[in-house]
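Repro:
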Amino acid sequence: MKRLSYISTFSRPLTKKEVENIGKVSQTNNARDGITGVLLCCGGIFFQILEGEEKRINNVYKRILSDDRHDQILCLKSERNVLHRQFPEWSMEVIDLDENNDMLLQPIKILLQTLGESHRILASYTPSEVLQAIESGINPLALAPRYTDKIIFFTDIISFTSITERLQVTEVVNLLNEFFTICTKAIAGRGGEVTKFIGDCVMAYFDGNCADAALDAGLDILAELEILRNQAPPDSPLRVLYVGIGLSKGTVLEGNIGSYLKKEYTVIGDAVNVASRIEAMTRQLNRFLVFSDSVRLGLSDRWRPVRLGDFHAKGRDEIVEVYSIDDVLTLHKSDFHKLKLDIKQHLKLISIPEEVLV
């Protein structure tokens, strides 16, 4: 047998009658399928334990994952080869803790509320690949590493050192949060995966056949940043929030990498290094977005790539053929040197005196 425990939040407010109906339907279906267990409800949270034949448990959980009444589903524990049932008499006992004032149940209420809050916090720090595995009842540590084709996406803030030197901590954090929010939404919205934040840098990846989506995400970021700069108050550091974006494609190793104390689900390989080096070239090429020939080859006919030349990427012997696209968003309005001077001048006008920073 298999025993599975999960927690989820209500996707919308549910009435007492709706919760009771969930219990009635579950009892009927579970009695038919030989499934037993318990369902607890408290403060907009479901906590359920299911036990029975493995295939039937998997089918029930699959239906739960697609049920629009559930949100933020997290599998807490998945046990196989279970010999004895914990709830042999209950096809599905529903206990609404909000309707029960028994003081002995108060600690359980607090425990479920704490679990729900912890789940929401952890979800903010956890890569979606890992979250999807956990939600599906798979131990993410068991995910096998694999070689796969990916488009690697790097972007970071231009003149970030000057920004940190001239602004207060809260201003720097607010600027970073704006930047990360725009990048995360744009990349996820086009089907990409943000794998890490490295200082002021965002590293992400797309499937190898998604070159169009990766380029669209880059343009989305540049467009949102232009809107943000234009709408920011004259004395805001957001007025000088510019970025460089670099993309490369190649075979990478995807999986859990790290020590026994700490692991990270990420991608490594030459394509990662190339994307990072190409992103750094945006400064000398006076382009906000550049990409390798390997990315260009995967683009559809709707793009008009502009060849920028062949370059030696730092730390790499091979020549890198670099491209951009003929779009106003990708072009510096002036050369990069002048842009850096403009950024420093703006920061000098709006920042607090250096003696206060010291």
